[in-house]
């Protein structure tokens, strides 16, 4: 088996493909991470404070969240990409291990992102759509020393993250599904969509009432997850699998309120887009001919830097730069302008023959490049335009036709020598192709063994021994397996993906909500769980997981329930400016059904069932007293 994997890895290393898809993947994964950091910051008092706004967490946590967000911007834009990826991985591990972010507010997303962040450290994602590429180009200002960054990667850069972050996760999840009755009945996708705690605001009753379609989707998910890891790299399977995966994860985003996980999985499908599609998209989006010709002084370092920067961000190829030496023969519109004037300002000529000078030339560059057009429109605003014109004039006059001296050539040559030195150093430490193939193969086999340990431990042995009986061999191997799982879980994000299983839904027949009485004595719903039983925005993602998977479960633990009731009343009480000392919160409950067989209109039945009051929460001097009457918590 090792030799088979080794030969496949070796072939994959030798095959070079465009890095465009990898760059798009980095950008969108960075945006997923960034939105999660913004979410954490918004809910920082709920997640990190022992009692929100009363017993607060260390302010350093909020400071590190801001640092994490800044680092994620570097990762997204591809600025010092590898270092940013290492720092990002460090933040995920630290926050997951040492804060309540994972223990009470996870739902599996953190482990998925730990694994993804670990892979980002080793993937050459900086080779497309990155500021690192711009940094390389800026080192070589003279045409004689022109150097373009590498824009291709080995095909393994696409296949390895797909195999590890999608294939192994899907396979593990499919194994768990075989032990759940509602999944075996084809209702694995249908049942969560009838549970008020999980559904989005979109009414999908018409869709859920199609029994055959729901069962088809349920069985399709199981088959899809089983075959993905064995077929995703085959050309004939790639597009069908990509369309199926995108459809399923888009459905999760639209129908359920666990959108971060859905978006996190969805961005991996950028790696499945056929390479020819990226090239075709690139040709389609780029202009067939330049929309604007910009003239610059080739002897001016500042002008050359400006050209390189604009060309880097001109993804639609709307701008063409020409040296001033070509103006006489090719562009007669410039013949009436003296040499001194041309060297003093920047000139731009559009397709209609209109000539623009100075700040107007830069304004046209922004407009012609399309996506920064808003910046160009902003510059047109009176006051902003005149201020920008003044700044441009000062810079242009100071330049005064600054020409390149020997230092320019020395700098460029030194940069070139640095590049060659780095290349030699990289080749020395990376080793030969055979050595790299061996290392990647060993890493891949290790990941497969670690994931297999998790799948067998929780997906098979745990399920088979749910009655409590365990063999002697199992009693010996279980502690070893748990120790391995602890390390792989913490540092690689390898975890059981038993989502929406029977042991989660079985007996989940009651849900809880919180209301309060305003100063007029009227009962109002906290902006948390509404009258239907849905968790309203922005209480989605990890906050939904906290309430629906930890606080309220088929077998409610009083300690946990009370802890999170205090957290929610203190947090939202402060957010909507309630005086906790003078507000009475009401705990409400209603019954729902979670059957393992299909039932028509179940979503509407569950959200329209009546609520009953079962208790209240009273705050006094920073302490909450919770009273629950007329109900046995063990029966919930």
From TrEMBL:
HTTM-like domain span: 14-277
GO molecular function, one term: protein-disulfide reductase activity
Chief place where the protein resides: membrane
Coiled coil: none
The organism's place on the tree of life at top rank: Bacteria
Transmembrane spans: 20-44, 56-76, 83-102, 108-129, 150-170, 190-209, 216-234, 246-271, 443-464
Family annotation (SMART domains): HTTM (SM00752)
GO cellular component: a single term: endomembrane system
Record keywords, A-Z: Membrane, Transmembrane, Transmembrane helix
Descriptive protein name: HTTM-like domain-containing protein
């Amino acid at each position: 088996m090792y030799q088979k994997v080794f030969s496949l890895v070796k072939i994959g290393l030798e095959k070079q493909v465009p890095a465009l898809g990898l760059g798009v993947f980095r950008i969108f994964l960075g945006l997923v991470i960034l939105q999660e950091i913004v979410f954490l910051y918004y809910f920082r008092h709920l997640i990190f404070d022992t009692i929100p706004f009363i017993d607060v967490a260390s302010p350093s946590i909020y400071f590190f969240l801001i640092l994490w967000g800044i680092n994620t911007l570097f990762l997204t834009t591809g600025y010092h990409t590898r270092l940013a990826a290492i720092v990002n991985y460090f933040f995920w591990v630290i926050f997951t291990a040492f804060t309540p972010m994972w223990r009470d507010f996870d739902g599996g997303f953190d482990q998925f992102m730990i694994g993804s962040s670990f892979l980002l450290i080793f993937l050459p994602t900086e080779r497309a759509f990155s500021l690192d590429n711009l940094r390389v180009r800026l080192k070589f200002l003279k045409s004689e020393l022109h150097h373009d960054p590498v824009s291709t990667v080995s095909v393994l850069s696409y296949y390895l993250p797909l195999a590890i972050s999608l294939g192994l996760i899907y396979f593990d999840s499919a194994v768990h599904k075989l032990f759940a009755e509602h999944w075996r009945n084809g209702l694995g996708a249908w049942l969560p969509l009838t549970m008020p705690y999980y559904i989005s605001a979109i009414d999908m009753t018409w869709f859920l009432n199609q029994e055959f379609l729901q069962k088809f989707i349920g069985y399709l998910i199981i088959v899809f997850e089983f075959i993905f890891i064995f077929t995703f790299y085959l050309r004939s399977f790639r597009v069908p699998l990509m369309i199926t995966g995108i459809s399923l994860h888009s459905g999760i985003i639209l129908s359920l309120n666990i959108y971060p996980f859905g978006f996190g999985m969805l961005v991996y499908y950028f790696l499945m887009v056929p390479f020819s599609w990226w090239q075709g998209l690139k040709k389609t989006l780029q202009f067939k001919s330049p929309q604007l010709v910009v003239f610059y002084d080739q002897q001016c370092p500042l002008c050359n830097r400006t050209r390189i920067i604009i060309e880097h961000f001109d993804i639609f190829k709307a701008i063409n730069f020409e040296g001033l030496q070509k103006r006489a023969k090719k562009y007669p519109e410039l013949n009436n302008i003296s040499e001194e004037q041309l060297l003093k300002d920047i000139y731009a000529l559009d397709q209609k023959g209109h000539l623009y000078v100075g700040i107007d030339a830069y304004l046209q560059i922004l407009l012609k490049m399309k996506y920064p057009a808003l910046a160009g429109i902003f510059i047109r605003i009176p006051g902003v335009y005149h201020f920008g014109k003044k700044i441009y004039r000062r810079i242009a006059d100071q330049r005064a036709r600054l020409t390149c001296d020997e230092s320019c050539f020395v700098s460029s040559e030194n940069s070139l020598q640095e590049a060659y030195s780095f290349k030699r150093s990289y080749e020395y430490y990376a080793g030969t192709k055979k050595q790299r193939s061996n290392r990647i193969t060993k890493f891949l086999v290790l990941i497969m063994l670690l994931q297999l340990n998790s799948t067998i431990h929780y997906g098979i042995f745990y399920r088979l021994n749910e009655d409590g009986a365990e063999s002697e061999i199992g009693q010996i191997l279980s502690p070893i397996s748990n120790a391995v799982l602890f390390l792989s879980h913490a540092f690689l994000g390898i975890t059981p993906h038993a989502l929406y299983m029977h042991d989660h839904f079985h007996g989940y027949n009651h849900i809880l909500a919180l209301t309060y009485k305003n100063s007029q004595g009227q009962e109002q719903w906290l902006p948390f769980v509404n009258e239907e039983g849905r968790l309203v925005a922005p209480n989605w993602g990890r906050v939904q997981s906290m309430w629906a998977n930890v606080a309220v479960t088929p077998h409610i633990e009083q300690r946990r329930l009370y802890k999170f009731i205090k957290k929610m009343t203190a947090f939202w009480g402060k957010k909507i400016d309630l005086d906790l000392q003078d507000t009475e919160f009401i705990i409400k409950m209603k019954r729902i059904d979670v059957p393992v067989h299909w039932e028509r209109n179940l979503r509407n039945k569950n959200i329209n069932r009546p609520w009953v009051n079962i208790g209240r929460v009273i705050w006094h001097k920073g302490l909450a007293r919770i009273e629950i009457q007329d109900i046995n918590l063990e029966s919930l």
